[in-house]
Design brief:
heterodimer; A: 183 residues; mainly alpha; 3 domains; 3-stranded antiparallel sheet; rod-shaped; B: 189 residues; Rna Polymerase Sigma Factor, Chain: A; Arc Repressor Mutant, subunit A; two-stranded parallel ribbon; 2 strands
Chain lengths: 183, 189
Amino acid sequence: MENREILEQLLEHYSYEELANEERAWVNTFSSQEEYEALRLLNKHLNFSYKEKMKPRPETWQKIKTYQRINSKGFRVFEWFKWPVPLYAHATMLAVVGTVFFWMGSKHSSSTIFLDRILTKVDTVFVPTKADTIFKQKIVYIKVVAPSNPSSEIEPVRKAVVSKGVNMKDKEELEKLLVSGLE
Amino acid sequence: MFLRNAFKELSDEILMEKILEGSERALEVIYNRYSQPLLRYFYRMLWKNRELAEDFLQDIFIKILRVKNFDSTRMFSTWIYSVAHNMCKNEYRKQAFRTSAKLNINEVAQEEISIQLDHNSFNKIVEDALREEDEDISTMFVLRFELDMEVSEIARVLNCPEGTIKSRLFYLKKKLASQLCQYKTVLKN
């Protein structure tokens, strides 16, 4: 240990009066009693009453804050994005956003609206029946496509029925054939 | 409130990174941590001129905001006090104050120091003695006794060996003590 460090330890713990005779003799080789006591008082003063008790003025912080705002426009928006978010929060957010978009998408995915309405229209259609059945009247419900524009005419979905290609004439001939068994 | 508390727990270095990204909260936390000690440092180093100290405090935080890259492996506190030290050095050079100030020290001291010293007079002696010293010694003294900084950190701020700092501080204290004796003062507790 250096002499300086030994002296500092003595200064910290003992007044000159409290020093042992050999310690006093040792101290006197470096300094006088007066200087030793002055050093002790100086240490005490520096440790307890030297420090300034002052706070910065509020204007200083305001100026710094203004400078930051002026020099980093729009940073507030990005600050939120840069804040670390846990993985589960990301997953929850994605699930919520996904559900909302799916719901909205399914609601508006098609401009075609199916309407369940009855139209009275006389037409020739193929109705598969037993050979000996006679209908006086048969109501056939078919789905029609209503276009998004309500003013336009509603066209019945006929294609599937018509495309079968069997008319009444063929049907009668077929029945005759089946009943008579003649060609 | 939640965000503010979260920022308060972050280290200086991480806060500095966030400041570079434009975070106002991070700047506020750093300001709350360092504004007071830095103001005291500037006040001590700049001839107890409060206005100048406030200006320097503002300047150092603007310097922080202007930083493009910060090496987060380096301690923020060491870096900021190095910047503060250099700012003071530049100010000394700019104003060439010290030469003229030195001439007045002894006159002022002899006029003002009476037989009995109170704490203010004691401070005056210390301040005057510091003005006579080299800038680095004054900085060491203020960092150690005003800001309670560890000798190891002072060594990093001033880029100087710890042993040198210890011995220089002791030398200065001894000088102050002998100066007090020289004036034959009766010191009050």
